[in-house]
Specification:
Layout: H1 10-39, H2 55-71, E1 111-112, H3 113-136, H4 140-156, E2 164-168, H5 171-174, E3 190-193, H6 200-216, H7 222-241, H8 246-249, H9 263-277, H10 280-287, H11 289-294, H12 309-314
Antiparallel strand pairs: 1-2, 2-3
Helix pairs in contact: 1-2, 1-3, 3-4, 3-6, 4-6, 6-7, 6-9, 7-9, 9-10
């Protein structure tokens, strides 16, 4: 994923794989369901009311969801992780913003907006598809709280229509050391994309995160949902009208989360905006010329933070 740190931290990657495996499982299930539905070979195995709870899977989900608490930055609220404390409280201060929330990337202390936004989008999708199942094992509220911890960061990272802060911290310095985020004292610069230094993929992915999360909070917090959707629309416009890769605008990200293209993020964002708004303009965006140029309909490959084409075709 990112550049390898010089210090030991293999256990963190094990936890990363656990959470990604669970989320990916949900996505794969949805893909299979969609394929069966489209082929007419639907055996009735579709998500419904939770059935009997299998304890070992309930426990696995709890551990996976707890990983988000481990990764949190900022002034922690109702902290259940005894060895974690407040950190990153001054993040964003150089830009006169509060970027203290959000989550650290893997086992380091960087905040990379591109994979963080993707995490929010996929977590939203999992909640929308399987929220009742999560609720049955007391993990829904925890998952929603973790999602909001990320989206609060993303809202603050978008102070102007055409400005999005996509990174906090110095990746070179960060990966030269290994210690607790609570002990960080060095300066942590905030990096932005804008009209002069565009970042279509990260702006569009953030739009997808905001749009999908707006659906999660639509009933429980309508005002917050509206705020997220407003940011999503503006970010999508910014991404689409100022096309350019953030890997070219900010070359240092190539060593960590290099983007191989932004077409998939544009379609992914438009698809979520269509679900969130019902506006046919977004559907036409996906199925029209942009879809013909970027979608590769019928030929999806993998689904990851860098390639959302498979997810877009399901969504």
């Amino acid at each position: 994923m990112g550049a390898k740190p010089r210090c030991k931290g293999w256990w963190v990657w094990v936890l990363v794989l656990v959470i990604l495996a669970l989320v990916a499982g949900g996505v794969i299930f949805a893909v299979v369901k969609k394929i069966k539905k489209n082929s007419g070979d639907d055996d009735g195995a579709v998500p419904g009311p939770p059935g009997a709870i299998t304890q070992k899977y309930s426990a696995a989900l709890k551990v996976a969801v707890q990983f988000f608490d481990v990764q949190k930055s900022g002034k922690l609220v109702d902290n259940k992780i005894s060895w974690r404390g407040d950190s990153g409280l001054k993040d964003g201060s150089d830009a006169k913003l509060d970027l203290s929330k959000g989550m650290y990337d893997a086992g380091d202390h960087m905040k990379f907006g591109f994979p963080m936004a993707y995490t929010a989008t996929v977590l939203s999708w999992a909640i929308l598809e399987y929220g009742d199942h999560m609720d049955a094992v007391n993990q829904l509220k925890t998952s929603q709280a973790s999602l909001k911890w990320i989206t609060d960061f993303l809202v603050n990272a978008h102070p102007k229509d055409n400005v999005l802060y996509i990174q906090v911290g110095d990746p070179k310095k960060d990966h030269e050391c290994w210690y607790r985020p609570e002990d960080v004292t060095e300066k942590r610069p905030a990096t932005q994309v804008n009209t002069s230094a565009p970042g279509t993929e990260v702006a569009a992915e953030t739009a997808a995160a905001m749009a999908s999360a707006s659906l999660v909070f639509k009933k429980s917090d309508a005002k917050y949902s509206d705020t997220l959707l407003s940011h999503a629309k503006k970010l999508f416009t910014f991404a689409d009208k100022n096309r350019g890769s953030y890997s070219e605008s900010i070359p240092e990200v190539q060593k960590f989360y290099n983007s191989t293209g932004y077409g998939d993020e544009l379609l992914w964002a438009a698809a979520w905006l269509y679900h969130a708004t019902g506006d046919k303009e977004y559907l036409d965006y996906v199925t029209g010329e942009n879809g013909e140029e970027f979608a590769q309909f019928g030929k999806p490959t993998w689904f990851s933070w860098d390639n959302k084409l498979a997810g877009t075709q399901v969504c």
